[in-house]
Amino acid sequence: MQSMAEVLRRDQARVQAAIMILLVGGFLGGCQSAPMRAWQGAQHFAAGDAALEREDPQAAIRELTLAATLVPHASEIQNHLGLAYWKAGDQVAAVRAFEAALAIDCDNQPARVNLEHLLEVSARVPPPRPEQVGDEIDGR
């Protein structure tokens, strides 16, 4: 099993290439605001990636959500958002983000591996019984 840092390093070159494509595409697209959105999205992506590296999933979720809003067609952002949600313990949101990454780019192998691994891990963990959930919520 790979650590979060290994997963992030593995697709770093792909992310950098995607950001360059987004930036170049924005400049060539003719829309005045597209280059700025791509640039801001890249900045939020980098900040989210750094938050993941320092084990701060909540900051990563905030930054990567902003990046995904600015650059909605970047599957790498969705993949990293999935990692952040997973790290924060929100498996439902993580699955949604990994699936969004694959809907954007069905060849995004890191997102596919992450989704498969998450589903495999969650299949091994039994869901909590209702009384356990109530105990946690009530603080008993």
Overall geometry: globular
What is the H/E order?
HHHHHHHH
CATH H-level homologous superfamily name: Tetratricopeptide repeat domain
Q: Which CATH top level class fits? A: Mainly Alpha
N-to-C CA distance:
35 Å
* Number of alpha- plus pi-helical segments: 8
The strand count comes to: 0
> What does the main sheet amount to?
none
Q: Give average pLDDT, whole number.
A: 81
CATH architecture: Alpha Horseshoe
Helix content: over 70%
CATH fold group = Serine Threonine Protein Phosphatase 5, Tetratricopeptide repeat
Low-confidence stretches: 26-30, 132-140
Mind telling me the C-alpha Rg?
17 Å
SS-based class = mainly alpha
Percent of residues in β-strands: under 5%
Q: What's the structural domain tally?
A: 1
